[in-house]
Amino acid sequence: MILVTGGAGYIGTHVVRSLIRHGMDVVVYDRRPLPQPLLDGKPFLPVPFVVADLADRQALDETFEKYEFEAVIHLAGDIVVSESVAEPEKYYLNNVGGGMSLLAAMRRYGVMKIVFSSTAALFGLPERVPILEDDPVRPINPYGRTKWMFEQMLDDYDRAYGLKFVSLRYFNASGADSSGLIGEAHDPETHLIPLVLEVPLQKRPYVSIFGTDYDTPDGTAIRDYIHVSDLAEAHVLAVKYLRDASESRCYNLGNGRGHSVREVIATAEEVVGASIRTVETPRRPGDAERLIAGNERIINELSWKPNYNDLNVIVESAWRWHKGQN
Ligand code: UFG
């Protein structure tokens, strides 16, 4: 049995889907209820879920008493960089405090394996791309710092208590499950691909391009967009690795290819078959020029293989989901 914290969110639902496909038993723990879409009249994510906060010790204890967990996949957390700057306390309480509360419960119940959802934001403004796992970690906002603190905590728990972990440093998770039943929906939405697709859906009049003066071929920032289903599969591989792992590991999780903001918009126009109105604005504070994953480590060590690494396929899958939400 695998406990997935944050399993009701965008990445979480895709991770749950992958675990189910691999025949694993799953329990979701999230502040929100697990979405319950139906496929041919049957639940698409047929797993038990607990609606509670990580700070709720009683709810955690009841969950660990009720089920016998082999490992935890810890995805629960707040993720909006700008909000983390304005309201750092929320981020330290949830991402660090909530994480500590989870680790304490794991120790109480002897569950000593964890897969952690970390982030490329750890690297701040990197000096080179592709970024390798051992490149300098220099987060530049509270969000990135909370994720880095939790990684360091995991390291300390490994040394002192023998906890084994896999930390997955996500690049830009995007796209949606091929069923079209689960996909990316944040409130408020801050991510590029959903914002772009909301223009043809007439949910917003235009999409902003944050900065056109970067030192890149078209002047806009470059990111490594990874299909959320490929990202989800890495969690299954990480859980399997932890079954007899003697060493904890950190992995960058991206395709190793970069696309500019303008390329994403052009791809969306092709997929949607309409032009998408844009407005050029100054850079968003704290944005790196390029974030591209060096991904050889996870490919070599966990045999991870992306199946949907084409930007067109990623945007098409996102479009299928967004259209279905109308
Ligand atoms: N962008 C725009 N206009 C928008 C929104 C975004 O031009 O309206 C640009 C951004 O400036 C950036 C790119 O599109 O260059 C991607 O931006 P996102 O907000 O979609 O994603 P980020 O790269 O900022 O951040 C995401 C996650 C973080 C994570 C990071 C790691 O939100 O949690 O990827 O790469 F840390």
Helix content: 25-40%
Order of helix and strand elements from N to C terminus: EHEEEEHEHHEHEEHEEEHEEHEEHH
CATH superfamily of the domain at 2-175 and 226-254: NAD(P)-binding Rossmann-like Domain
What is the overall shape?
globular
Overall mean confidence score, pLDDT: 97
CATH topology value of the domain at 2-175 and 226-254? Rossmann fold
Strand content: 15-25%
C-alpha Rg, in Å?
Answer: 19 Å
Low-confidence stretches: none
Largest sheet, spatial ordering of strands: 5-2-1-6-7-8-13
User: What is the name of the CATH architecture of the domain at 2-175 and 226-254?
Assistant: 3-Layer(aba) Sandwich
Task: Report the bound ligands by name, code or SMILES.
Answer: uridine-5'-diphosphate-4-deoxy-4-fluoro-alpha-D-galactose
What class, by secondary structure content? alpha/beta
Write the layout of secondary structure elements.
Blueprint: E1 2-5, H1 10-21, E2 26-30, E3 38-39, E4 42-43, E5 49-51, H2 57-66, E6 71-74, H3 81-86, H4 88-108, E7 113-119, H5 142-161, E8 164-170, E9 172-174, H6 192-198, E10 207-210, E11 222-223, E12 225-227, H7 228-243, E13 249-253, E14 259-260, H8 261-272, E15 278-281, E16 290-291, H9 296-302, H10 311-324
Parallel strand pairs: 1-2, 1-6, 2-5, 6-7, 7-8, 8-13, 9-12, 10-15, 11-16
Antiparallel strand pairs: 3-4, 11-14
Helix pairs in contact: 1-7, 2-4, 4-5, 6-8, 6-10, 8-10
Uridine-5'-diphosphate-4-deoxy-4-fluoro-alpha-D-galactose (UFG) is lined by residues 79, 119-121, 171-172, 190-192, 195, 207-210, 221, 223, 261, 284, 287, 291.
